[in-house]
Amino acid sequence: MKIRQAGAVGGPSRTSIAAYVTSVLAIVLSIAAPGPAGAHTSSPPGPAKKALLVLSDLPGGWTSKPSSSDSSSFPGARQLAGCLGVPTSIITANAPTANSPEFVSNDQLRTVTDSVSIYPSARSARADFASLANTKTPSCLTQVLNGPARGALASGFGAGSTLGTILVSRSPAADFAPGAANFTAFMPITTHGVTLNFELTVVDYVKGKNEQTVIFTAVQSQFPTSLARHLTAVAVGRL
Hints:
By secondary structure, this protein is α+β, with helices and mostly antiparallel strands.
């Protein structure tokens, strides 16, 4: 699905847009991507850190900064689990996880983050992966993010900003390395009369007890498919 471009002339500065990108990433990591993409706080085993993307995997001009993920709980966990037909414990699973820095493009309009979780068993890792791969996931997330989770999500953008209707869909499997489950969330945010269109894509892999989640964000454009495919191939190759 294409992102609609904002029609306003002028608009926020590059610095303010970058701040919104960071806000979107931090909020969605803790709210919009429970289970497979949620933030975790337990100390991860060393191998998890070695499997993460690093700055040298990104094109020239990209920079890195500390991850903006946090440990907030997902306010719609019960409703999402009910919609998917899975136990709430799968949505709220909190396996030890290593997080990469947040990688930022030179124009400040795209970001990449990576995380690797180590589950107690391959079965529990697969259950988490399956919650994202579920055919109902896009429609259920759309329902929950515009319902019980909406207030928590909208409050993160501060006064003067309005969150529009959130739409969650699948991206084509061919956009990423084989074996992934994914979803893409589209979020329009209006501030001072200007609408910024955000795209956030969560791409998930599982191998044995290990689950790797790569998250791409872009504002006013789509994240480059060739770069997404390259980065996911590198990431899953390290699992």
